[in-house]
Amino acid sequence: MKGLREGSKDKYEMWFKSESRGKFVHITYAAVHDEEGEFQGVLEYVQDIQPYREIDTDYFRGLE
Questions:
Q1: Please, which residues bridge with residue 15 across strands?
Q2: CB neighbours of 42 closer than 8 A, spacing ≥ 6?
Q3: Which Pfam families does its entry note (predicted)?
């Protein structure tokens, strides 16, 4: 997380199987800055990506 604090990175992303939840999750850590660009903290968000791993087709539906 040092890169977020120092400004060399905007975000870190990772995914893994959560043993406690029994599913794959995607985690993003994003730097939060104020109007002057000063580091304020880190926003963490977690997404359940298990449904995507279970897709058995390469079908893609484009956005309109």
A1: 26
A2: 1, 4, 29, 30, 31, 32
A3: PAS_10 (PF13596)
